[in-house]
Amino acid sequence: MNRRRSLLFAVATALAATGPQSALAIEPALDALTYPGPAWSPYLVGTGIGVLAWLTFYVSDKPIGASTFYAMVSGMIGKALAPRHTERLEYFKDKPPRLNWEVVFVGAAIGGAAVAALTGGNYVNEWVPALWSERFGDSVLLRAAVAFVGGLLMALGARLAGGCTSGHGISGTLQLNVSSWIALICFFIGGAAIANLMFRI
User: Fold this and answer.
1) What angle do CA 198, 158, 62 make, to 5 degrees?
2) Do both 166 and 149 map to the same domain?
3) Cα 111 to Cα 70, 73, 164, 183, distances in angstroms
4) Is residue 114 over pLDDT 80?
5) Which of 87, 154, 158, 180 could hold 168 in an S-S bridge, CB 3.0 to 4.6 Å?
6) What pTM does this model have?
């Protein structure tokens, strides 16, 4: 780490010798270990996720995953509103909708995210993020509608892929599952492509 900082300092010094504008054009990259801003250390959080994945396999013999949560919640809603139709669906014949591992996991993830935001100094009370507002305006309704449609597409894609960023991205990749690595690469490509389309064009 010190060697890298020394190299960055040497480059910055060399640029400064060529003129003030050149020196201002390039800034040394921030180090995640010494980042002065808010939020938890990414190394600490990454290690914690890895340990959690080990424990879930060891204790419950189940992988970390969230996409089944949506199916279970949809099934519970369907069971309450249209029980006969829900019971005839092939998926729910094999997996009856109930409060299961995935439902508890997603609920705990939401609670954990709230704790992390509050303790890491990242809690922001806003309906429309600044980046979105600059591009699409301040309409809360538009933001909510796009988020809802995006959530539906994400859930549909996760079920078609047989897993989400948790199931494939964490549980599958740590088992060196080839399909999970392919899915993870596609997650990044799709996310980068949509983000560029929405916020850079």
Assistant:
1) 135
2) yes
3) 17, 18, 19, 27
4) yes
5) 180
6) 0.65
User: Given 125, 154, 188, which residue is the final one in a domain?
Assistant: 125
Residue 146's pLDDT band (cuts 50, 70, 90)? very high
Encoded tokens for 40: 């938890």
| 65 within 8 A of 163, measured Cβ to Cβ | yes
Predicted local confidence at residue 3, as pLDDT: 43
- How is residue 167 annotated by DSSP? I
Alpha carbon 132 to chain centroid, angstroms: 18
**Domain final position from 100, 125, 150:** 125
97 and 139 housed in the same domain? no
What's the chain's average pLDDT?
79
Q: How many domains does the chain have?
A: 3
Contact 67, 167 (CB under 8 A): yes
The answer to whether residues 141 and 88 belong to one domain is no
